[in-house]
Write the structure tokens for this entry.
Amino acid sequence: MNPKGIRRRTRLAADAALAVVALCFVLPLLWLVLAAVDTEAGHEINWPASPSFANFTSILTPDLLFRPLANSFLLSAGTACVNLVVAVLAAYPLSRFQSRFNKPYLYAVLFATSLPITAIMVPVYGLFVQLHLLDSMAATIFFMATTTLPMAIWMTRNFIDSIPLELEEAAWVDGASGMMGLRTVVLPLMRQGLGVVFIFVFIQAWGNFFIPFILLLSASKQPAAVSIFGFFGQHGAVAYGQLAAFSILYSIPVLVLYALVSRGSGDSFALSGAMKG
Amino acid sequence: MSAPKIRNFASLRNIGSLSNVSSLKRSTRFLPVVPSVVLLVLFLLAPVVWSFVSSFTDVSLSGKSARNPVWVGLDNYARMIGDPSFPASVWLTVVFVAASAVVGQNILGLGLALLMSRAGRAISAVAGIAVVSAWILPEIVAAFAAYAYFNRDGTLNQLLAAIGLEGTDWLYSFPMTAIILANLWRGTAFSMLVYRAALAAVPRDISEAALMDGAGSWQRLAFITLPVIRSSIATNLMLITLQTLAVFTLIWIMTAGGPANASTTLPVLAYQEAFKFGDIGYGTAVASVIIVIGSVFGIAYVRLLRQERP
């Protein structure tokens, strides 16, 4: 057989294998979609007898949907903003000025990216109790921001490193201070990079269940990740259809954000800062 | 990496003499780093230290020892060794990490990346979206989907019934298998993205030269591709191990560690001891063990990256 024929056969085999894997990965999600349009939904997948959006319309209430989503937004946007400001402030001097503390600090930051956050939730709860911070939205935002901050600093520093220094030098010669160089030269150039960091942190905070589950107690402050638990078991019968409909509405923002970023900067956006040194 | 650094340094000195940077300016220019240091110390370092300290006390969620915890020395750790549920939990954690991450996600991710480099563009994109969507969904949504999938009436058993096989109550009879497969489904996207990026950076001409020399595709994979991307493999293994070590929500929703602790990995055990049984002292002792295990991998990860960029 000629090489072209071999290549075509490899390609067909690869296509078939990928199709099978894709199907396996989609199967668990099929239930979400079918249950969402089925008012009689259970655990099984069924073509609904009379497909309808009744599950969606029945959860369009402030208590069930809007307030939890607003809380999620507040939590995620707050976390992302804190990350962005603190990470840019820290990354700029670390990238531009020499000091013997730079390297140890950066390695400490890198080490912190690998700390298993679920392991520190028990001590964090204890800490929050002692400092009377439990059920505080602001404290939860700052804690959540700290869990992603190491990654944000690392990514931001890589972005600043890739901006040539000559541009700021020109500004400095004209009498600008170091921080003015950051504001007038560096920030405008790394707008896209900052967008990636913001969205990366936002997606993580939006999807996080464990941290608000432990730290936010009152229902009025809980984000969608925690309020979704209400559909599940606590009222006896589980409203699977509503649970699925809620899951879909709650997931849409991160799917859109991910699509936005991966179109702009390739699939491996989340890794661009993390993996490259 | 090192070349621009040297240039930065030289040009900075020039600027220094040009605009006469005072020593005050020199000492204040690291001030912006302070907020990050404060946050990291307050919310990461302090909890870690607090975890180790309170693991030597009998502090609890409520009652007398909530306000006045007593120093109990190594009691919590002694109890840990004596209590059969702790070694069992360590073993389940090792099985979970090894099967779902080190073997599962790693090999499936690499396999997918290799397939995508050979398959058609459209099917690669579709498969990529399918794999990534399980990863990008909020963790609680993914956990509910996996719960429904492995449920007794769930999709998996429906599929098995369709081909004439009798299913079982996976979450009850095979809880570890169910959470391992669920985590494989949830996490493979990360490895796939890492390996796609790594494979894209493999120089084409080496592989083509080997092809000319008559190397088969398995030989090219074993002797060329894998050695070239070995640092990506090592980094990926480190990161997915750490991520999987910390998995809580998926297990909590699917099995809650049960039945009878049959799927209680260390994070679930720490949570149960601290919040279900109110024993913060013992819970933080378990948490401290996870932190130590995580730190070992974290240090290895830092060393690995440091070797790559001298």
Remarks:
- Residues 62-96 of chain A form the longest helix (35 residues).
- Chain A has 13 helices and no strands.
- The radius of gyration of chain A is 23 Å.
- Chain A touches chain B through 104 residues (CB under 8 Å).
